[in-house]
# Entry
Amino acid sequence: MLGLQLSPLAYGMIDGVYTGATALLRLVGGYVADRTRRRKNVAVLGYGLSAVAKLALLAAGRSVPAIGLVIAADRTGKGLRAAPRDAMITLSTPPEALGRAFGVHRAMDSVGAFLGPLVALGVLALAANSFDAVFVVSFCVAALGVMVLVLFVRDRREAVPATAKVSVREAATLLRDAPVRRLVIAACLLGLATIGDGFVYLLLQRREELSTVWFPLLAAGTSLGYLLLAAPLGVLADKVGRLPVMLGGYVALTAAYLLLFGPLGGTPLLVVTLGLYGLFYAATDGILMALAGPVLPDRLRTTGIALIQTGQALAYLVSSVLFGLAWQTWGPATASRVAAAAVVAAVAATLLLLRRRPGSPRPAAAAPPEPGDPTDTDPTDPTDPTPPARSGATSPAHPGTTPAAPAGTDRAGRNTGARR
# Structure
């Protein structure tokens, strides 16, 4: 496709493998970060590998095996860094502000995704279409980001040092926890209903007969919507609940899929579809991690986040192959409508899985909470926008004292001033 003469199925397999290849690496990175309690170090390693890979493209030249190794290094870095980075955000933020924290992070992250293609075009124009100059500039920007991470980001540790290192057996027990298990299942279902970005852009390009020169700017349009909406939607999620905002993002995704072969055309189609796509990412990407943070213990926080991300990555691999097969068998219009129906089904299933259960236990208290009291929440409910810390709060029976926390539970005392 787009000059490579790939069938939709072949493109779906390549696209799915490209994203799904990081799945196991996410688990490895998450487990190593929890076992060593060095989340920042693992994140630095991941970002450093990706930075070096950009410069290594210069040495790779036209060698296909060398380019393959460079891409593998870049994907390895991405797989290693994602879970430790998100875990540091959850551990450095009060539970009631996780939506805002992830929204701000995703907004800043998408600034690069938006400006990257534009800067690359500018560098190519100034350097007489020399891609080597693009690789050098990209490396310099990535290296600067690694330096900021090393020098200014703090890795919050548990208040009480762990008595033993995290074992594989202990990490495997995460799925025995019902809230975690429901989140993993929901993440897999939603990932299975989401087709790759490349497919969406290809369908827009084919329908509007856009030149391949403008194709990269479709992704920039999505990134623009993402960076403008991520922080406001994160704040909204903290106020009204993270689950409604996240599911609202998938409603926007459904509308985007239907518009691919809907009544709109021309510039309105491009603006509305890319805007909805940016809204989808702004309402879902960081919000899912904000949902996960409060239900995961500090000791296994990174492993738990990696587990959710791995489930989504593997589901995405399957969805890309299935959509490519559907396109090749039924045509792009029918395949897009089937994808929209799949999103609706996944949203309904997620609502059933993550809705607040009337019988869910509430934290014990000396007296009933006052209206608006943040303790009036369900610590095991991922839909609650303001879940309390599970332990480390002042004991109602003994003011000024802190009850002991069982091994593997979340601890209070999150540093609200820690760098995100």
User: Anything to note?
Assistant: Residues 233 and 283 are 6 Å apart (CA to CA). The chain has 14 helices and no strands.
